[in-house]
Amino acid sequence: MAPQSMSRLASIYSFCVLGLMVMPHQIYGSSRGSLALTSGISDHPPADGICAALVTIHGYKCQEHEVVTEDGYILSVQRIPGGRVGVAGNGDTKRQPVLIQHGVLVGYWNWSWDELAKFDLPAVFDYVYNETGQKIHYVGHSQGTLIAMAALSEGLLVEKIKSAALLSPVAYLNTVTSILGVVCREAIVANLFGDSAFDPKGQLLPFFNIARTLCDAPGIDCYGLLAPLTGPNCCLNVSTFHPFIRNEPQPTSMMNIRHCGQSIHEKVVAKYDYGSSEANTARYGEAKAPAYNLSNIPKNLPLFLSYGALDTLSDVRDVNLLLGILKPNHDVDKLTIQYINNYAHMDFIMGVNAKDVVYSQVSSFFKNHTGF
Ligand SMILES: *[C@@H]1O[C@H](CO)[C@@H](O)[C@H](O)[C@H]1NC(C)=O
Ligand SMILES: *[C@@H]1O[C@H](CO)[C@@H](O)[C@H](O)[C@H]1NC(C)=O
Ligand SMILES: *[C@@H]1O[C@H](CO)[C@@H](O)[C@H](O)[C@H]1NC(C)=O
Ligand SMILES: *[C@@H]1O[C@H](CO)[C@@H](O)[C@H](O)[C@H]1NC(C)=O
């Protein structure tokens, strides 16, 4: 599995959002690229790889950054410091930083999203805050929303975040109908029976291989193939979808898949269950994996939450559970909710009309909430 392609996927996600973001912002996108410092794995993405392949060709300046986490991972972060080169009004005015975090289908092995919430996001926030001297607007999609909510509920990021836009929010997975949910559930069953050979990649990769083959044939509506995974996206176009499927989406870590299975099974938003009271006690000081208390998300933090009726990963019923927790606590004027009738999971990051339907709303939201 090539870390490079995973990072590339991450920035495709980012690019779709950031390419369309309205101006006075500078954009950062990050991914738990790949490598443990401590294990000495050294297949780094080449410097400038992601920027050159995906960003500068569209006329933006782009810088590659590396952020080291407390647990020894190097995150690859791309920074777009301003608007399109040569466009009037895109000079070096002081810009507001926006951090964009992609979703679930990228990764490496030995972590669950607890680590992303505890180490990765805080490391990137620290880095961007230090570089810019400004608090940060956050945009998360899918798992990128989950880790932000988890981090915030643990009191992390709070000092450095200005607002958060949560697209296809994922917290509860009680009614997830995506085939990814099936794989997550199977991972739990396999684990119960000590089936170490269970391989989620083995289950999902044939799906992607077929998709890739079909998408290379001219005139095929290949994006319809995503429906079992994401719901029936209304608004994808070959031009955005092709690079995505070509860059081989890699299923995430085994631990993350199991964590997903635990969420589905237990119907709570909790930390990773290490499987026995001894192991949990060693890790957490308590026999059960502790729940994240989402009511701890600061009630005056501006939140923009956008969800789609046809999304099978961020199911409407699960989003309503989340809203049931957030709404009673949150300051009314700090919570903006958008419900999109014809959107599924990928439309939020690749929909041909996402610029008008979603990003323009996110942009106005950022403009209206500059003071947290
Ligand atoms: C994964 O990390 C845990 C600690 O977080 C460690 O106990 C375990 O041995 C690691 N597994 C692998 C395969 O590296
Ligand atoms: C903070 O930013 C300064 C200036 O860019 C840099 O020299 C320093 O190493 C940064 N510190 C951290 C902890 O990133
Ligand atoms: C859809 O993709 C085609 C082929 O790449 C492109 O010509 C067209 O402009 C795209 N349409 C939209 C709405 O982006
Ligand atoms: C969760 O957080 C809220 C708000 O901070 C607090 O009132 C509540 O007691 C917490 N619940 C648990 C179970 O800790």
Question: Can you walk through the features of this model?
Answer:
The chain is an alpha/beta fold and about 375 residues long. The chain contains 13 helices and eight strands. The chain has an eight-stranded mixed sheet, with helices on both faces. Strand 5, helix 4 and strand 6 form a beta-alpha-beta unit. The structure holds 2-acetamido-2-deoxy-beta-D-glucopyranose (4 copies). The site of one 2-acetamido-2-deoxy-beta-D-glucopyranose has 3 residues, from helix 3.
Give structural attributes.
alpha/beta, 13 helices, 8-stranded mixed sheet, globular, binds 2-acetamido-2-deoxy-beta-D-glucopyranose, 8 strands, 14% strand, disordered N terminus, 372 residues
Largest sheet: 8 strands, mixed
Please state the average pLDDT score.
Answer: 80
User: What gap, in angstroms, lies between the N and C termini?
Assistant: 41 Å
Q: What hetero molecules are bound to the protein chains?
A: 2-acetamido-2-deoxy-beta-D-glucopyranose
* Contiguous runs where pLDDT drops below 50 for at least 5 residues: 1-24, 33-47
Helical content stands at: 40-55%
List the helices and strands and how they pair.
Blueprint: H1 3-18, E1 25-31, H2 49-55, E2 63-68, E3 74-80, E4 96-101, H3 113-132, E5 136-141, H4 143-153, E6 161-167, H5 179-192, H6 200-216, H7 227-230, H8 238-246, H9 254-266, H10 277-284, E7 303-308, H11 316-329, E8 335-340, H12 347-350, H13 354-368
Parallel strand pairs: 1-4, 4-5, 5-6, 6-7, 7-8
Antiparallel strand pairs: 1-3, 2-3
Helix pairs in contact: 1-2, 3-4, 5-9, 6-8
The chain binds 2-acetamido-2-deoxy-beta-D-glucopyranose (4 copies).
One 2-acetamido-2-deoxy-beta-D-glucopyranose binds at residues 237-239, 352.
